[in-house]
Design goal:
The complex is a heterodimer of chains A (249) and B (260).
Chain A lengths: L5 E10 L2 E11 L4 E5 L6 H8 L7 E6 L2 E2 L7 H6 L1 E4 L11 H12 L4 H14 L15 H13 L5 E5 L7 H17 L3 E4 L3 H7 L2 E6 L2 E6 L1 H6 L4 H12 L4
Parallel strand pairs in A: 3-8, 3-9, 6-7, 7-8
Antiparallel strand pairs in A: 1-2, 1-4, 4-5, 9-10
Helix pairs in contact in A: 3-4, 3-5, 5-6
Chain B lengths: L1 H19 L4 H8 L2 H41 L6 H16 L2 H15 L8 H27 L2 H9 L4 H16 L1 H14 L11 H12 L3 H33 L6
Helix pairs in contact in B: 3-4, 3-6, 3-10, 3-11, 4-6, 5-6, 6-8, 6-9, 7-8, 9-11, 10-11
The chains are: A alpha/beta (249), B mainly alpha (260).
């Protein structure tokens, strides 16, 4: 078997006394799309932030294409250049135009020239229907447009892995579809993605594998058909029932 | 509109009436409002004011940089930087605590008295250094408030792109922090402008001393009025410029309101 794109072993993470992740094991193959589902506070966001080294971990190891990135003294900036992350609240830079948002990483972290970075950004923006927004400032865009720009910003780094942290949770319902459409496209193109989401029908649609996170562990994982159709764990069943009752599936 | 005009007229009318009816008004008027003297005195005092302007401009340019440096040092996280942070805190506490006039007196009298080789003995030099030391402490607090007002998620977003700590600060955090603190920065710089008058304690013939010398010659306070006018004349354009900066930034980011 080839080296997995991402391999996590025995990952533990606490905030003070609160242990948020209690032993996570997870592997992603290249071009695989894995959705993380689970209640708020189950540790989905924390897991993604740990993978991007935005949070230090207590125990366990994370490897990216075979290279352990949780070793002491690793160049975190180099690691992060290879991992894109998109946040729930977009986190665009409000003092920069769309183009500047997208070119900042390639220019400063990858060392690309201005013209090269702008060409790359312009291509990506055009691909995701944002060509006419390149000189706008984030405050002037809708939530859906802002989140698409945030995705483009991550893609401009040409990451080997893309992490998506509940990217539609802060959006008005009518704006969710345009963002999900972008992610669906990326999945088709073969982007390796780990997606924390509350959009169950989207997860069922786009994921190769679904992981149910509960109280800091992956309680159950399998194909979307298996998790949504015939979950074996009672807690997974309960969670999905609540989702159905809320009309989200 | 009509109401505000009417109320303004009434308010200032009553005020003028009361003031001019004061028993000492005629003496007051003769002492402060001698227009012939004002015109005569203006060029001389304005020339002395150039010393204040020079001190102000040099000090401001330096403070903008040193204060930012101090604020950045204070915002460094991690145990390694504890000594740096501690030093920055002590510095800010000390120079905000000691009255500016004392710092000017101590450095302005003390340093030239040392007669050290290579150490400047100009009072203006040491007065400028004193103002830089004091105002760096104040202004760094303003910057720090700005840095802390930028949400940590902005830094996280920058770092997640692989930017270094310094790059994230330089390109993402500081530009937002500085924009937010432009009005309070101006506040401190107006204070600095006015505090250049404190240099007078060292005997430098700047605007305040010049006005004082003139006043002593003919016992007329109009010379002080000239000095006051000069300070205000410098402050007002600066205030309007800041308003314009802030407004321009807002316009650029939000022109046309929120589009959907």
């Amino acid at each position: 078997m080839s080296t997995p794109a991402l391999a996590i072993e025995g990952l533990h993470k606490s905030f003070g006394k609160l242990e948020v992740l209690r032993g996570i094991d997870l592997e992603l193959a290249d071009h695989e799309v894995v959705c993380l589902i689970g209640a708020s506070g189950s540790g989905k966001s924390t897991l993604l932030r740990c993978i991007n080294l935005l949070e230090p971990i207590e125990e366990g190891r994370i490897a990216l294409h075979g290279e352990e990135i949780t070793v002491r003294g690793i160049d975190v900036d180099r690691v992060r250049r290879g991992i894109g992350i998109v946040f729930q609240a977009f986190n665009l830079f409000p003092h920069m135009s769309v183009l500047e948002n997208v070119t900042l990483g390639p220019r400063k972290a990858l060392g690309l020239g201005k013209r090269q970075a702008e060409a790359r950004a312009t291509d990506l923006l055009a691909r995701f229907g944002l060509a006419d927004k390149r000189d706008e400032y984030p405050d002037r865009l809708s939530g859906g447009q802002q989140q698409r720009v945030a995705i483009v910003r991550a893609l401009a780094m040409q990451p080997e892995l893309l992490l998506l942290d509940e990217v539609t949770s802060a959006l008005d319902p009518e704006l969710v579809a345009e963002v999900l459409e972008v992610i669906r496209e990326l999945a088709v193109e073969g982007m390796t993605m780990l997606i924390a989401t509350h959009e169950m029908s989207f997860a069922r649609d786009v994921a190769h594998r679904v992981c149910f996170l509960d109280e800091g562990v992956i309680l159950e994982q399998g194909s979307p058909a298996q998790i949504f159709g015939a979950p074996s764990e009672p807690r997974t069943q309960q969670f999905l029932q609540r989702i159905v009752a809320a009309g989200r599936l | 509109m009509l109401i505000s005009v009417a109320s303004t007229l009434v308010f200032f009318g009553v005020l003028a009436f009361l003031v001019t009816r004061a028993p000492g008004w005629d003496r007051f008027k003769a002492y402060f409002f001698d227009w012939t003297l004002y015109r005569e005195s203006f060029p001389e005092i304005a020339e002395a004011f150039l010393i204040n302007v020079r001190i102000f401009l040099v000090a401001e340019a330096i403070i903008l940089v040193t204060a930012l440096g101090l604020a950045v040092l204070r915002s460094l996280t991690g145990p390694v930087f504890f000594p740096v942070r501690a030093l920055a805190v002590v510095y800010a506490d000390f120079f905000r605590g000691v009255p500016t006039i004392l710092v000017i007196l101590m450095l302005g009298v003390g340093m030239p008295a040392l007669q050290l080789e290579g150490v400047p003995d100009s009072e203006i030099f040491w007065a400028t250094v004193s103002l830089v030391l004091v105002y760096t402490a104040y202004v760094s607090e303003v910057y720090r408030a700005g840095i802390e007002s930028v949400h940590p998620s902005q830094d996280a977003a920058a770092r997640s792109l692989g930017l270094t700590r310094l790059q994230a600060l330089r390109y993402v955090v500081l530009p937002q922090a500085v924009r937010r603190v432009i009005p309070p920065l101006l506040n401190d710089f107006i204070g600095l402008q006015k505090d250049t008058a404190l240099v007078s304690v060292l005997g430098v013939v700047e605007v305040l001393n010049q006005a004082g010398i003139n006043e002593a010659a003919d016992f007329n306070g109009t010379h002080y009025l000239v000095a006051a006018t000069l300070f205000v004349a410098l402050t007002i354009p600066l205030a309007r410029f800041t308003d314009w900066l802030v407004a321009r930034d807002r316009r650029r980011r939000q022109a046309g309101g929120v589009a959907t």
